[in-house]
Amino acid sequence: MKKNFILCIFFCSLLFSCKTAEIVINQGPDNGEYFISLCDEIEVGTSRAFECVAVIAYLAGFDEYSRPAFSSMYDSYFDKYKNDKTVKKAVNKFKALRWETGFSYNAVASLGTYLESDCHSYRVPEKILIEQLDKRISDRKVIDDLLKVVSEFYDATSFAQFYENNKKIYKQLTQVYVQQQDFLKRMIDNYTDYYHEKPNKIRISSSYITGNGNYGMSFNDGNKVYFEPKFCVQNDGIDANLLIHEISHPLSNPVAEKIVENTVIYNVIEKTLVSEKLDSQRRQGYGNTYTYIIELLNRANTICICKNFCSDEEIQYQTEYDKNNCYFEEIEKIIEILGDYAKGDYKNLMEFEPELERRWAEIY
């Protein structure tokens, strides 16, 4: 998850003239999701399964899935179901998992990513599902229980009809992307140059029910990884730092997980996660050593990519914000190390990982 910090006005000034996007309907096992194809790499629209689980999270009182300015859109439809036993069962299951495993934020988005659009099955076999789902819900019994309560909620509330009724609103959500599609393409080109890997299809799902949260989801079918970030709606423009941050997670995280295994780095960071720094991390949805390392490296990678099309002032602003406000105290030094990766002749970031790990440990 990442908040919107870099000013949209700067990015809007970079736009080229936009072409009209071709409207296409997703040809999945249950047709009807609203998506627009901007180019070969990028689709934007809404995910019915994510909308469904996000609504359950909203009804369960998850603060991160609440956006008061738009709640009437959901309340006007779902209020009549609040006393329905099936709806209560789903809501109570979400509440219980939040208490027991920390089911929230990305975990909810992960569930919505791996459910089929009609919420009655998962998109991959169980073995892959257990490996790829957020660890807070990857237990086999939890997987089965969630599928049962979500599918029953979907049927009991006629969720397919709710989704269909709001197609016009979902179309509105995509307009900011349509207007700035050339800028999106430029961002992806810089992303590809940095990671030395062209992303598979990027499917951006927007929603009003995600609060102000953004989730860098990816979908792994066992062969390929597809980028499927879930974004809140920002009507004033596209934040490059935000988008790059979210789609960077799938390539940054495997490298960060290698760093996590380094006991020198892990133990030092663990000792520093106390008091105000720990409180700040928890407010951001992190709060432990593992997530600190994951998030620190991803933020550093994001800033390195944004250097190619952001002003020095904006890079400095974002770096200082991450360091001083979010307490990622090592970020400047990690960015410096990654600068050598960006200038070097490495196949990808994972090939640079031993060098990154060695120099990271030397920071302490």
Which SSEs are present, and which pair or pack?
Elements: H1 8-12, E1 22-25, E2 34-37, E3 42-45, H2 48-59, H3 71-78, H4 85-101, H5 105-114, H6 126-132, H7 140-156, H8 159-165, H9 167-173, H10 175-179, H11 181-195, E4 202-207, E5 218-220, E6 225-227, E7 230-232, H12 240-260, H13 263-272, H14 275-283, H15 289-306, H16 312-325, H17 331-343, H18 349-362
Parallel strand pairs: 3-4, 4-7
Antiparallel strand pairs: 1-2, 2-3, 5-6
Helix pairs in contact: 2-5, 4-7, 11-12, 12-15, 12-18, 13-15, 15-16, 15-17, 17-18
Describe this structure in words.
This protein is α/β, with parallel strands linked by helices. 57% of the residues lie in helices and 7% in strands. The chain contains 18 helices and seven strands. The chain has helices at 8-12, 48-59, 71-78, 85-101, 105-114, 126-132, 140-156, 159-165, 167-173, 175-179, 181-195, 240-260, 263-272, 275-283, 289-306, 312-325, 331-343, 349-362, and strands at residues 22-25, 34-37, 42-45, 202-207, 218-220, 225-227, 230-232. A five-stranded mixed sheet has the order 1-2-3-4-7. Strands 5-6 form a two-stranded antiparallel ribbon. A hairpin with an 8-residue loop joins strand 1 (22-25) and strand 2 (34-37). The longest helix has 21 residues, at 240-260. It is globular and about 60 Å long. The chain starts with 7 loop residues before the first helix and ends with a helix.
